Fold this protein.
Amino acid sequence: MSEIKFAERGFERFYKCTQGIPLYINSFYNLMDSNQIYTSELVKEIFFNNMDQILIMQVKVWRSLNEKEIRYSSNFS
């Protein structure tokens, strides 16, 4: 994530929104612009304004899993 720039509390907000989960991080990261400096408020705004896109990506990934992968991932819920 070296090309994304965060203000003082921006990354903290990013981490709270994604909970450190790689799929969430990747989905959210794909919506970000490397020419922007992300404040906490801007991260929050982008996250909530694009929630539908983030969720669609997660559904696509979930639907691509086989039964073994679903059982394995369910152990972490």
Remarks:
- The chain has a mean pLDDT of 86.
- DSSP finds five helices and two strands in the chain.
